[in-house]
Every structure is written in structure tokens, then in C-alpha cells.
Amino acid sequence: IDKVNVINIGNSGGQEYSYAKFINEFMKNPSPAVILFAKERKPIDFNWNNLGGYRNTSEMIDIASNYEFGCGIKPGPKHSWYHDKQTLHGVFLKEWKQPAKAAKSIFNTEKYEHLQDFHHRALNYSFPPPKYTPVCYGGSFAIHSQKIV
Fold this sequence. Notes:
single chain, about 150 residues, alpha+beta, three-stranded antiparallel sheet, two-stranded antiparallel sheet, 4 helices, 5 strands, globular
């Protein structure tokens, strides 16, 4: 790694909204680079028996350097990494409480109706074909800047 720029975007109402904020503010004219989105801790609310373990930062960056998507969690034998887009579009969480905190987090400040509404309004994005799309669990991943919409 030749150069590292750390941009702390803070909590924008959940990790997905923080990612959207970063994309909207910093990805207008991206230079070729690997972008690492990292949570402050490993996810603790997963059943590790169903997952393949957690990738370290170097592994995620190596994957993204080859223009692939470096998810922080490795695929496991009992966990699907692909979801039907129609089902995914309808996902909606009314509230979120982090396992380690007693108080509820600030969540859905823009009043999105469902995930598809978030994609359209926050990201101006629609999933391309095919019917199924890959999903990364855990909130940490690396991607090449030229692969971000």
C-alpha cells in the first residue's frame, strides 16, 4: 500500500446511510483507488457456525485491488450470499438497537419506506440484471473506486 487517506464520516444514521453519504460526497470524480469501509468492531450478532470467518484488512484490499468485491466475512456453508432482488427491495427496519448499547441508534432519518426507496433516493441506483444479487454481511468491505456507482 503506497498511500492511505482516512476519511472518518461518522455515524450518519446507520452504516448504509454512512456509505451513501461517502459515495455522494467523495465519489463524484474518483481517482483509481481501493476504498475500505470498516466498522469499529467485528460483527457479534452472527452465528459463526454458518459463516466462513472474518477476512482481515489485507485480504479485503487484495481482493478489491483485482476489481472484485472484498467482503469482510467469508462465505460459509449455511448462509446464502445471493438474494432475490424483489425480496431485498422490500426490506424495512423500523428501528435498530446495537447489541452492546442500551439505547436505540438514530435510524432512518430520511424516512425511507424500504430498501428500494433508499437505493433510489439516497444513491440514485437500481440493481442491474440478473434476478439475484450478492449481499455482504457484517458491514466491512473493500471495493475499487471504479466499481462504485
